[in-house]
Amino acid sequence: MTALILSVIAMTVIVGVRYLAVSGAFAWLTDRKLPGFYGDRREQIRKEIGWSLASAFIYAAPAGILAWGWQAHGWTRIYSNVADYPLWWLPASVVIYLLLHDSWFYWTHRLMHRPSVYKRMHAVHHASRDPTAWAAMSFHPWESITGAVLVPALVLLIPIHYAALLTVLLIMTVMGVTNHMGWELFPKWLVRGPAGQWLITASHHQRHHEKHLCNFGLYFRFWDRLCGTDRGLGEFRSGPRLRPRQS
After folding, report:
1. pLDDT per position as a tens digit, 23-43
2. How far apart are CA 93 and CA 96, in angstroms?
3. For residues 152 and 100, is the Cβ–Cβ distance under 8 A?
4. What is the pTM of this model?
5. Neighbour-count burial for 76-88, b at 16+ CB within 10 Å, e otherwise
């Protein structure tokens, strides 16, 4: 039992520090590129950080339990020997996890925009109408639970090398933050080119924070396009605060 508790505590620290480090790094980048861009949102940022740190525990608890179960009892399908599965399964497993996560996110996210559910769960996230890099995990606890269960469920069912799993978590973290920065990090040729027709960036997710009932996806636009909920790219704040820092 002690080992289990320590695993959950350690995972909570890891998830919390990861959030502070990654969101903090992109918030710093925002200040370098667009000085003062977040300057009038200090109270909003304080709330985003508070909700996100609470979410860190909710995300970490099942992960900590499974990390302990993996080491102590072999509960999961995580493997460490690359030779256990064909080499092509390494990238394939990453793609499969991302596709399944994206599908889960799309449909649960869309459900959370039903009025009765929205008020109880998702309104916390949309309090950040103009989101910041700190908003990536700014969720009500009930919403955090819906996000926290999927990857633990997948590692119980679908084999994945631990390095591939770390890749999935890295993509999840970086895209969660960059999609909420309130400005577009990626170049126009990607966002408005062929790849941007299928990949979600801050420009696409900004429309969701503007209009709510559209652009529900996480990584890919195919569910939005298939279900008729894709409303294109959003508009960012305009004005002097958006002038890039001169080098």
Report:
1. 999 999 999 999 999 999 999
2. 5
3. no
4. 0.91
5. bebbeeeeebeee
